[in-house]
Amino acid sequence: MSALLGTPKGASGVATAKGLHTVALASDSASGLSYAYTNTGISGVQEDVVDRHGTAVYFIELDTERALQSQGEAALTAFMGSGAWTS
């Protein structure tokens, strides 16, 4: 996953908030990874999801201020559970 992931340019204090873990994307088991960092004095969080479905690879990223993390996670969770694969 490291070839796909990267925190914002100039981010400092980058730390893994949640190591590699399994998450659900529609009916698939996908991989997730979360980071915490500071950028231009603002505390941020990044949550990345990578899924391989058939021959396609899907990458979804939530990147938000720490103060908005719960709203961002709620939106990401709703999005990831809202779809169904058609092929």
Question: If you had to describe this structure to a student in words, what would you say it looks like?
Answer:
It is a single chain. Helices cover 16% and strands 55% of the residues. The chain has 87 residues and is an alpha+beta fold. The longest helix has 14 residues, at 69-82. It has one domain (14-77). It has one helix at 69-82, and strands at 12-25, 28-39, 42-53, 56-65.
**Number of strand elements:** 4
- Could you tell me the radius of gyration in angstroms? 14 Å
State the share of residues found in helices, binned by percent.
Answer: 10-25%
Instruction: Tell me the count of domains.
Output: 1
Order of helices and strands: EEEEH
Summing up helix and strand content along with how strands pair, one would put the structural category as alpha+beta
Question: What proportion strand?
Answer: over 45%
How far apart the termini lie comes to 24 Å
Highlighted features:
single chain, 87 residues, alpha+beta, four-stranded antiparallel sheet, 4 strands, 16% helix, globular
Question: Which helices and strands appear, and what pairs or packs with what?
Answer:
Blueprint: E1 12-25, E2 28-39, E3 42-53, E4 56-65, H1 69-82
